[in-house]
């Protein structure tokens, strides 16, 4: 009597070893694959050690699952179909479904089941399987409801990003206006200094002011100009 085929044993370690075909990803195999692909008559069926180098084809549009490392993964986790219908604790097609209330209800049920699990473990630990299955079902349903919020989360993320860009632009505009006003004030001060210098020169030519006083005023004006230039560069 032929032995029945044993089901595939999936890895249970939290960090399982990589699949064995990673050893085929070598430079020599890559060069060999390039030669085959660039040849006049490329082979449709490659040797096994070269077939691993080609990425798998994407699943068709109608597919709901894809296989990775021997396990089925959901293509679109936002759909409630990621969980079998018999395991859903709510009707996803209900138009009056309130996701916030549902999520709150499931969370409270999860806490209650956890308290019941602690009671079961304190009385008879061998009867924990049923309560653990209830907790697992609640967690899966909570995960489905959270995934249904993904489109809303994406919209909110884009909204926050655009608001941040807008705020940065407004800050840059305000900074440009501030620097423009400071430059205008600086040019106005320079213009006034030139006018004052011209008046002092005219007074000196008329002999109403001594050369020492005129020299001191020039030094003060130069110091003021240098101070304004330093203020402009520091800001």
UniProtKB/TrEMBL annotation:
GO cellular component labels: core mediator complex; mediator complex
Record-linked InterPro entries: Med7/Med21-like, Mediatior_Med7, Mediatior_Med7_sf
Source domain of life: Eukaryota
Family annotation (Pfam families): Med7
A GO term, aspect molecular function: transcription coregulator activity
Keyword Translocase among record annotations: no
Protein's GO biological process: regulation of transcription by RNA polymerase II
Cellular compartments annotated: Nucleus
Entry keyword annotation includes Acyltransferase: no
Gene3D superfamilies assigned to the protein according to its UniProt record, in alphabetical order: 6.10.140.1520, 6.10.140.200
Keyword annotations from UniProtKB, A to Z: Activator, Nucleus, Transcription, Transcription regulation
SUPFAM superfamilies associated with the record: Mediator hinge subcomplex-like
Family assignment from sequence similarity: Belongs to the Mediator complex subunit 7 family.
Subunit structure: Component of the Mediator complex.
Main function: Component of the Mediator complex, a coactivator involved in the regulated transcription of nearly all RNA polymerase II-dependent genes. Mediator functions as a bridge to convey information from gene-specific regulatory proteins to the basal RNA polymerase II transcription machinery. Mediator is recruited to promoters by direct interactions with regulatory proteins and serves as a scaffold for the assembly of a functional preinitiation complex with RNA polymerase II and the general transcription factors.
Name of the protein in its database record: Mediator of RNA polymerase II transcription subunit 7
Natural source organism: Rhinocladiella mackenziei CBS 650.93
